[in-house]
Amino acid sequence: MDDRLLLDRIRGIIGEKETEDDCSVFDLGNRFLVMSTDMLHETTDFPEGMTDYEIGWMAAAVTLSDIASMAASPADLLMAVGLDRPDRLIGITEGADACCRSVGARLAGGDIDRHAELTIVSTAIGFVNHEKIIRRSGAKPGDLVCVTGLPGRAQAGLEGDPRFWNNLITPIPRVREGIAFSEGGATAMMDISDGIALSLIDLGLASGVGFSLDPSLFPLIPDIPATRAEDLFLFGGGDFELLATVPVECFPVAGVDTSVIGVVTQNRDIISGGAPLPRCGYAHRWN
Amino acid sequence: MDDRLLLDRIRGIIGEKETEDDCSVFDLGNRFLVMSTDMLHETTDFPEGMTDYEIGWMAAAVTLSDIASMAASPADLLMAVGLDRPDRLIGITEGADACCRSVGARLAGGDIDRHAELTIVSTAIGFVNHEKIIRRSGAKPGDLVCVTGLPGRAQAGLEGDPRFWNNLITPIPRVREGIAFSEGGATAMMDISDGIALSLIDLGLASGVGFSLDPSLFPLIPDIPATRAEDLFLFGGGDFELLATVPVECFPVAGVDTSVIGVVTQNRDIISGGAPLPRCGYAHRWN
């Protein structure tokens, strides 16, 4: 069982709509409040060699990325830290605080616990005007499939490419880009933390569409074999870039550096270069 | 080092005001949004014998209690769950969902992770009008010190008194009581999750006051020796009752069943029955 199957069972309890997007959505009347939470812990989420500062940065960044993916502006972040050693808290807090400040958010508090294994849960809120929110469910056939940055770098960094170590350990939440996509008319959006392939599956399910990707358009990591670069691009996890669908007439989107990698299709298949895209990427597994 | 010392070091990074109350406070313009997060895990927080449903309930309740202690109405709760076994998620979710519904809140989503030790972080938001929020810092000399319920029951339950097992494992967030205290003019408030003695220390520091308690007024657990009952009352952890200070002219407070246990003093000492109150209660320790 992977966590996507578990999620299906949770939907039966708390509702379908509550679990579809990167954030929960609460209507404040004049705007939406969005909220997201992420649990990270040492053995599975923090590569060896990270400093405590970098760990704190990453823990904040993954959650702020969820806020960004709804085109919201992050406001406050709370961090619950289960510490194996108390002295780690200062570096972790400084890193999280710096990440929050880098996107105009505030580290507003949290909880301290002790734990056999360092465990951090960041929870953030953000705000977005009613007409500006972007969900996973708005993609329309004919829209362009766009992605920011150079996906695959985090996975390459994890596998030892020193050029991309920083992409792995101190990801940048794409807050500015998320808002630019919204201003520019994007129809659906999410971040690609589990890899582009899995993200497309989620986006396709939520929107009731499929995708046709053109590998010749993929922005690939330079100076490695092309087939390897393409695998990293499609299946690598740990990048916190944004995947968005944009109507043709809205492209290019002002203020965001993005690559078109394909189009949205009425047919629900996900095709890359004429062949079905394998369902691979980052997923927790229960054996 | 205990977590109160660690907290002092965090204040240097994120600010004094951000860590003083049970919740962070964000000004929405027309009202305050309050937010709180709590990490619980199996070996230190969930007594043996609890069902997964009860674990989920407790994890939600401790966080909703923080919202209640600011006199806010809870809205959404997110739950990040690190599972040792995936099949536990259903019961945990059902328990958390039931606890949320019991106070008019919504379990709105979360995160699933795997973890060697079951770990749950609940984060909740709530709303309160500007003039209705109650912080730890408003207590005034002469105010009455009030507490809801019968504190000490959770600790008694933990120590084997079967009458109070349910008080320990399925605490009730005092949302209705928090709002009633606010409507009735309370000046400061917090929950007593770490015990009354430690809570009074925090309340006294935040308000710049002391307290004089009269043990003859304490509402004590019946049918156990009085000295033992008094210890449980003052130093037992795990009760999620509310401690509030109320001006004499506002007492009794409509809609809340509360006991007066002493008065707020200008002198910053904390005295019970004429003797200084020991600094004892629940605190994580780092050795």
UniProtKB/TrEMBL annotation, chains A, B:
Q: Where does Mg(2+) 2 bind?
A: 38, 66
Q: Where does substrate bind?
A: 45, 282
Q: Gene that codes for this? A: thiL
Q: Which UniProt keywords apply?
A: ATP-binding, Kinase, Magnesium, Metal-binding, Nucleotide-binding, Thiamine biosynthesis, Transferase
Q: What family does the Swiss-Prot or TrEMBL record give for this protein? A: Belongs to the thiamine-monophosphate kinase family.
Question: Which reaction(s) does its UniProt entry say it catalyses?
Answer: thiamine phosphate + ATP = thiamine diphosphate + ADP
Protein name (Swiss-Prot/TrEMBL): Thiamine-monophosphate kinase
Give all residue intervals belonging to the PurM-like N-terminal domain.
21-128
Query: From which lineage does this chain's organism come?
Result: Archaea, Methanobacteriati, Methanobacteriota, Stenosarchaea group, Methanomicrobia
One GO molecular function term of this record is:
magnesium ion binding
